[in-house]
Each structure stands twice: as C-alpha cells, then as structure tokens.
Structure to design on (106 residues):
C-alpha cells in the first residue's frame, strides 16, 4: 500500500437500509471530503452530503471540512433530527403522568 494513502470507512443508515464503504483516500483527506468521495449520495437519493452532520466513531465532528482523517477511522453521516429530543422527553413524561393518574383513579 502506498504510504500516501489511508484506508477509512464511511457509513450511513436509514431505518430500513444501511451502507458501509471502505475507501483508500489520500493522506490529508478531510471528514467531509471522504463522505463526498464515498458515493453515498448515489445510494440514498436526497442525501445532502455538503450539509449533513458528520462524526467519527459516534462522536460528532464540529468542523468536518477541517478535520483530517487518520488510518482506519470510520466516518458516520448523521441524519437530521426529526424532533427535538427535549420535546420528545417532555411529551413522554406527560403521557406517563397521565397514564399513572388514570390508574390511580380506577
């Protein structure tokens, strides 16, 4: 293997479909560039790689255009949040409280 390239993985998943791609990229490749080089957009129509949040091994990368990858790292392409997690927790707590109140009055 050429010492000027590294091997990385790029992954993306939907609820019903996921894909992992192994790439050999030039040393100095950024997280964002690896995501774009992966060809993932061809497998997932509508995927906006230029603006998708990205991470490495489960940890979000604040500036994927600047963060240079190292050998063996896995780039993760994250989906945008559909609902605010705080709001979802509030709704779940309210529903649980209502259910509990219904049990006590029975």
């Amino acid at each position: 293997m050429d010492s000027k390239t590294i091997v990385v993985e790029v992954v993306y998943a939907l609820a019903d479909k996921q894909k992992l791609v192994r790439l050999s990229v030039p040393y100095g490749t950024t997280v964002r560039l690896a995501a774009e080089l992966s060809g993932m957009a061809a497998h997932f129509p509508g995927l906006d790689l230029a603006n998708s949040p990205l991470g490495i091994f489960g940890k979000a990368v604040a500036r994927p255009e600047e963060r240079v990858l190292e050998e063996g790292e896995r780039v993760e392409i994250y989906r945008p949040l559909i609902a605010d997690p705080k709001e979802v927790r509030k709704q779940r707590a309210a529903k649980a409280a209502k259910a509990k109140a219904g049990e006590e009055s029975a």
Summary: The first strand starts at residue 5 and ends at 13. DSSP finds three helices and five strands in the chain. The mean pLDDT is 89.
